[in-house]
Known about the structure:
Blueprint: H1 3-12, E1 22-25, E2 29-30, E3 38-45, E4 53-59, E5 67-73, E6 81-85, E7 89-95, E8 102-109, E9 113-120, E10 131-134, E11 139-148, E12 155-162, E13 174-181, E14 193-194, E15 214-217, E16 223-227, E17 246-250, E18 266-267, H2 271-274, E19 277-278, H3 286-289, E20 296-299, E21 306-313, E22 321-328, E23 342-345, H4 347-351, E24 362-369, E25 375-381, E26 396-403, E27 411-416, E28 436-440, E29 449-459, E30 462-467, E31 470-473, H5 477-483, H6 493-505, H7 520-534
Antiparallel strand pairs: 1-31, 2-30, 3-4, 4-5, 5-6, 7-8, 8-9, 9-10, 11-12, 12-13, 13-14, 15-16, 16-17, 17-18, 19-21, 20-21, 21-22, 22-23, 24-25, 25-26, 26-27, 28-29, 29-30, 29-31
Helix pairs in contact: 1-6, 1-7, 5-7
Amino acid sequence: MSKQQIVLGLIFASSAPALAQTVIVSPQRKVNPPGADWYECSVAVRIGQPSEVVVAAIHVPALADPEVGYGITLNGGTSFINGILALGVDPGVVADPATGRMWISALKNCGNSRIGVASKEPGGLVFGAPCCIYAGTGLFIDKPLMAISPDGSNHVMMYLMRKDTCESGPTCSHGVYATSTDDDAGCPWPTTARVQPPSSGNQGGCRWSGWGSTPVVLSTGRIVAVTHDHFEVNECQGLYNGGLPWVVFSDDGGLTWLPDSSEHLVRSPDAQLTGISPSQDADAPFWIDRNKCAPAIAVDRATDNVYVAFYARSSPSQSNTDIYISRSPNEGESFPPDTANLVQFTDFMLTGVPGDGIGPDQVMPSITIDDCGGVSLVFYDNRHDPDRGDQNPYYDVYFVRISNYGTGNQSIQQFRLTPQSFLPTQQGAFLGDYHHLASAPPTPTVPMVTLYPAYITPDGLNRSSYRHRIQVVCGGESLLALSDVDRDGVVQEKDVHAFEEAYQLGDCAADLDRDDEVSEFDAQIFTEVYSAAADGP
């Protein structure tokens, strides 16, 4: 089939109604090199250059200690340059919105218990030597995650640490800590601060375990962090927040945190008002996230509204799990449980079939808010498992985008990312506590929102990291910029022929996603945007 037949076939066979915000999802691309074993991945995209992306994961070399593997792409994922960092394990990736520098943070032993970070310059294809950050004494036991303020002035790191002793006595093990700096090249960073307040009342001096602690930094400089509510089984019998996520915030760079010890923790949302039951160990497959139920957090750059995504039981009497998204309209201080702020992905909403005791599970979400106001998530979903009652949970990865969140005009678009279902336990290999989703705003040359989900699935004897490039055309001028190929200010049928000619020649006028490659993905974008802009050919 010729390129002309492909393009015209795509365009004139399109009978789908035009969407106000068109979503185009590319096929999956493997990030790690062939034969590599990767798990627990993270992704970041450079602000201002939406084709520059970094994915990092735990890399397991043969007969050696795990390291950090990474893939860098400058063309939106058409190709990746791979590398290895002697950082340790549990990498997180973040982009500095002010400088364009990309950072990887991970657990690292530098003679004492410390955290390591490494960075690369904009457009670079290698990371520099790791820098060791002094972060207190104790055993660091989970992913250290960095967030950077919109102006680049504050870099904050959240991490989980086990200490032999603490103010409540020798049995207090887990604590969530933060360290921050206003100098992105400074090393070591300043003294750390404990995030959650000291225990009070009848909690017996125990602490939250801190699995899944993730920060965001608002335009005001406020740091907002979310952490899973969990106790070690042998230490405490109870939960601070009923098994639901808890949220704290700091207005002084992480030195002090609210709410303090005299206040109740912010519920996200209030279980008694919503009827939500927290997820229990038996509600999700161990090999996906070890039943830690790690929550995710994101901030809307336009409003400073904070969103928390987590999974919990679909109802108190059922064991199947749903994804919940809870929004704070006041910069993380409270999360109202009304329908304008709390959204539950029910089985009926996603599949058209009411859930039941063995209905499909949606677990382990990641979330981002794009610059068209869309709330996007990626998560594992077993809706295609032919027998959810047995011990072999077949899963897929789904992407969902919500438009007009919490309103009467709310709508969702969902896409199955994995081409076929997978069995998490088929190689007895842990996939990770985290996967990730990153977004970049439109630019003058790429008038679309660009999102990148990254995740892990089994791959033969190993595990692999995959990612997609997702383009969201928000309407208005972006539709015109992409579909008016001849630039006469009018979208009409001759633009079809102008695009087809450029596409056939491989001309850059047909490279709509600006990844330096003219491909069928560009034809798909043109099909969608032309249909929306011209209301059909």
